[in-house]
Amino acid sequence: MTYEELEQIAIQLHIGEERKIYTSGDYTLSLLRPTKEYKNYDINRNLQIYLVEKDRKPYRPNHFRLLIDLYTRVREYPNSRNKLLEAFDRIFYGEDPLSLLPLLRDYPYSQALNPLDVELVLAQLFLVEQCVSYNGVSKYDPPSLYLQGWIRQFITENGEIDQVIAQISNRNTPKVGYTKCDDKNRIEFNAAPMPLWYLE
User: Fold this and answer.
1) In DSSP terms, which residues pair with 98 in a beta bridge?
2) Over the stretch 78-125, which tens digit does the pLDDT of each residue have?
3) What are phi and psi of 134, to 5 degrees?
4) Where are the beta strands (DSSP E) in 81-182?
5) Under 8 Å between Cβ of 95 and 3
6) Distance CA 94, CA 181 (A)
7) CA-based angle 42:118:92, to the nearest 5?
8) DSSP label at residue 143
9) What does the CA dihedral 63, 67, 73, 74 come to, rounded to 10 degrees?
10) How many domains does the chain contain in total?
11) In the chain, is it the N or the C terminus that has fewer CB atoms within a 10 Å radius of its CB?
């Protein structure tokens, strides 16, 4: 489904309601509007993403799972870098994640944490969750640009994973070069940027 379709599902979820978003083989992704009120979260906006993997109990994947997965993919197949960037950018810009699988069909990734289709849908879920659930005033417009900037940086740069994880763990923001043309808060904002503009 497109970003807009998923966003509408997220917005319309009632408190206590869970909705399965995607199932593929032994994997299921779902969205939940929790009934419990958490500190610093508006109960009417809070969303939780759940992943059921094979025979394991449902758990809440976090952004690190996605980013580490991307890190391993691009290092297994370095020549897939630009295709990965294009696929995840097109998800950010609103396309259906599953429509982008053909972009990456030539790369039989074997070291990743999740199947590629699950990873693409999970990325879209995280982007929607950031926009719908963000509590407070984001530095970015849209708020999902924080995660998208890190996705771009993880795929593009060759730093050691420990160092990159430490940066995001300390609540650092991605480098502005990965976000500026998509950020409506910045003078560099471009409503129709060139593909992979941040690689120039």
Assistant:
1) none
2) 999 999 999 999 999 999 999 999 999 999 999 888 999 999 999 999
3) -60, 125
4) none
5) yes
6) 16
7) 60
8) T
9) 160
10) 1
11) C
Task: Tokens for 179, please give them.
Answer: 């976000």
**Residue 118 backbone dihedrals phi, psi, to 5 degrees:** -65, -40
The pLDDT averaged over each successive group of 10 residues in the chain (200 residues) is 95 93 95 78 81 90 92 94 98 97 94 92 96 83 95 88 77 93 97 93
Q: Which tokens is 76 given?
A: 């297994």
**Exposed, middle or buried: residue 147 (CB in 10 Å: 0-12, 13-18, 19+)?**
buried
Output the six-digit token pair for 34: 């929790």
Distances (CA, A) of 119 to 62, 116, 160: 12, 5, 22
- How many helical (H) and strand (E) elements, i.e. helices and strands, does the chain have? 6, 3
- pTM more than 0.90: yes
Domain of residue 84 covers: 3-199
Tokens encoding 74: 């691009």
Q: Residue 118 corresponds to which amino acid?
A: V
Coil/strand/helix, residue 197:
helix
CB atoms within 10 A of CB 162: 7
Q: What angle do CA 181, 187, 193 make, to 5 degrees?
A: 25
